[in-house]
Design goal:
This protein is 45% helix and 14% strand. The chain is an alpha/beta fold and 433 residues long. The strands form three sheets. It has a six-stranded parallel beta sheet with strand order 3-2-1-4-5-6, sandwiched between helices. The protein has a six-stranded parallel beta sheet with strand order 11-10-9-12-13-14. Strands 7-8 form a two-stranded parallel ribbon. The termini are far apart. Bound molecules: nicotinamide-adenine-dinucleotide. The site of nicotinamide-adenine-dinucleotide has 28 residues, from helix 1 and helix 5. Keywords: NAD, Oxidoreductase.
Length: 433
């Protein structure tokens, strides 16, 4: 099939590449000339394992092209996929300006029947708005469909090529048939539904996962007070198939480009129909507080923080990505520097993106994990990169001025710490000192 993907970000690029890998003819479009020029030159603008190789092989096979020319990409396609961003407005609502602008441009470019698919996460009713905008700008016929995206950054290619399910929301028989054919090589588990339910499935899924995270974080906070170990508790819960073991890892809370904005957006969606989503509001509040546990633990060991030096390992919101949108590290580091702390930060991949957004005279970005730790009064581990997990603790002990380790991701075990002099705080597990 011939596809145009509008918006070549984490979702558009990965989806476009994976559809090309399946043998489709794909043109990825973006407004950003720099990004498209890089992609045309074989460079990859984001860090995502395996992506570079797949771009290279599919571009070489002539199945994958990149352009800033939206009209010609739309005209060459049978199916147009919208994958532009839907960031939060200050109110928490989804900003639909990129979607609306792209819909207008698609409408102006149509030269015959197309299927217009929205992959971006959009509030209920948005696909209908897309349809209305396209109609205003064309005389040609088209169908619309909501096919929400569920990939996770860091494992985006594997998730796209082996999805748990594909959701296709449309009221058009032709769209249902062609989109099922497009996705069938990926999975037989295709859920056909109406547009509004498809839009809601995406928000409900992310809200539920965020709820699991805030739930286990609250259990962890109670574990700390009653002397239980949340990793054992989560393991015991996870063996129950009704609960499942995923998303039960206690830590510093969720971040990233999806959960924070999608939970806020769903609260707003509910509010617009006079429904107060009390549970989800609490999930968001718990998540906001959770990151400050790191600060409280630092204060518990170091006392007054002003004048201290703290090393931070990990800036991305999770490992295997350079995405720092809504990463908890921002608020943690900002709070530290506001308290008069000098921060020595390091992330193997996300450092450039992070330092562009947080430039402060008391934050030094270091060239290695070792350099960040050297001479610090304490180390906070905020992202569970393998590199940190594998760092020899005996070496770390000698690098730090004081062997204080605040493990925000529960990376180390009591056995590994036995025989060391670390003062060790994790999340929801007994402290060691
Ligand atoms: P992104 O910000 O990485 O990429 C969006 C791209 O769209 C940008 O490169 C931007 O320049 C481009 N763009 C905006 N308007 C355009 C236009 N009119 N024409 C051409 N290009 C245009 O965003 P993302 O992370 O890929 O997310 C896209 C959507 O997918 C969002 O709605 C998001 O919620 C959803 N989503 C994201 C993920 C994820 O893990 N990132 C997962 C599932 C769903």
């Amino acid at each position: 099939m011939k596809l145009a993907v509008i918006g070549t970000g984490y979702v558009g690029l990965v989806s476009g590449v994976c559809f090309a890998e399946l043998g489709n003819d794909v043109i990825c479009v973006d407004k950003l000339e720099d990004k498209i020029a890089k992609l045309q030159a074989g460079e990859v603008p984001i860090y995502e394992p395996g992506l570079k190789e797949l771009i290279a092989s599919n571009a070489a096979a002539g199945r994958l092209r990149f352009t800033t020319d939206l009209p010609s990409a739309v005209r060459a396609a049978d199916i147009v996929i919208l994958a532009v961003g839907t960031p939060s407005l200050p109110s928490g609502e989804a900003n639909l300006s990129f979607i609306k602008q792209a819909a207008k441009e698609i409408g102006e470019s149509l030269d015959g029947y197309k299927i217009i698919v929205t992959k971006s996460t959009v509030p209920v009713g948005t696909n209908e708005k897309v349809g209305a905008i396209v109609s205003e700008h064309t005389i040609h016929s088209f169908d619309i469909a909501s096919v929400p995206e569920f990939l996770r950054e860091g494992s985006a290619i594997a998730d796209t090529l082996n999805p748990d399910r594909i959701v296709i929301g449309t009221d058009s028989g032709i769209a249902r048939e062609r989109l099922s054919a497009l996705h069938r090589p990926l999975t037989d588990n295709i859920l056909l539904t109406d547009i509004r339910s498809a839009e809601m499935i995406k928000y409900a899924s992310n809200a539920f996962l965020a709820t699991k995270i805030s739930f286990i974080n609250e259990i962890a906070n109670i574990c700390e007070k009653v002397g239980a170990d949340v990793t054992r508790v989560a393991e015991g819960m996870g063996h129950d198939r009704r609960i499942g073991s995923s998303f039960l890892k206690a830590g510093i809370g969720y971040g990233g480009s999806c959960f924070p904005k999608d939970t806020e957006a769903l609260i707003q969606i509910a509010g617009h129909v006079d429904y107060e989503f009390k549970l989800l509001k609490s999930v968001v509040e718990v998540n906001r507080d959770q990151r400050f546990g790191v600060i409280r633990k630092l204060e518990a060991t170091l006392g007054e923080l002003a004048g201290k030096t703290v090393a931070v390992w990990g800036l991305a919101f999770k490992p295997e990505t350079d995405d720092v949108r809504d990463a908890p590290a921002f608020e943690i580091i900002q709070t530290l520097v506001d308290s008069g702390v000098r921060v020595r930060a390091y992330d193997p991949v996300a450092q450039d993106n992070f330092s562009r957004q947080l430039d402060h005279p008391r934050v030094d970005y270091c060239a290695s994990a070792e350099e960040a730790a050297a001479g610090a009064d304490a180390l906070c581990l905020l992202t569970e990169w393998k590199e940190f997990r594998e760092f020899p603790l005996a070496r770390l002990e000698t690098l730090l001025r004081r062997p204080v380790l605040i493990d925000g991701r529960n990376q180390f075990t009591e056995e590994e710490l036995a025989g060391t002099s670390f003062v060790y705080y994790s999340v929801g597990r007994p402290n060691l000192s």
